[in-house]
Amino acid sequence: MVYTIGQMATKMQVAPSTLRYYDKEGLLPFVERSESGIRMFKDEDIEWLLIIECLKKTGMPIKEIKVFIDWCLQGDSTITERKQLIEKQRQSVLNQIEKMKETLAMLEYKKWYYEMAEKAGTCKIHDRIREEQIPEEVREARRKSKGIERAEEVAG
Asked: Which of 12, 82, 98, 149 lies in disulfide reach of 153, CB 3.0 to 4.6 Å?
């Protein structure tokens, strides 16, 4: 089946301008054009567009995505380079996930903090709270927020 840029944009849940930008940047050399110059997307272009979107979401710059697309079009001689690039981005995503877990932990701590303060009617409740009264799941984030090292790090 053949899709217009608008139809493909809807299918990919992106703006048509995004696909035009990708084309302008050289990321869509596989997309055919009609005699009048209209882009004609095919079902097999979806996989290309999905990998472009995936790499973009990892924070990869458009220029690097273009290099990846060019390698793909070069064929089997660039398999190693493509695999290395994908592994680099995979590691980047894993690092982002770890940072987001730390961010979520801090938000969980602050949620608990303000729930306690709300019940007590004051944030000063936390001046009197003992370590064992703090839920286990937010203790580490609290320690980090206070600049307190872990007990085992201090002992070690």
From this structure: 149
- The strand pair at 39-42 and 2-3 is best described as antiparallel
Domain ranges of the chain: 2-74, 97-155
pLDDT band at 154 (very low <50, low <70, confident <90, very high): very low
Q: Which two tokens stand for residue 43?
A: 């079902």
Strand residues in the chain grouped as ranges (E): 2-3, 32-33, 39-42
Nearest to 52 by CA among 19, 83, 74, 75: 19
Please provide the average confidence, as pLDDT, over all residues in the chain: 92
Instruction: Decide if pLDDT at 155 tops 90.
Output: no
DSSP string over 10-65: HHHTS-HHHHHHHHHTT--TT-EE-TT--EEEETTHHHHHHHHHHHHHTT--HHHH
pTM over the 0.90 mark: no
Residue with tokens 């927020």: 145
Q: How far is CA 18 from the centre of its chain?
A: 18
* CATH, domain range 2-74: 1.10.1660.10
Contact 76, 93 (CB under 8 A): no
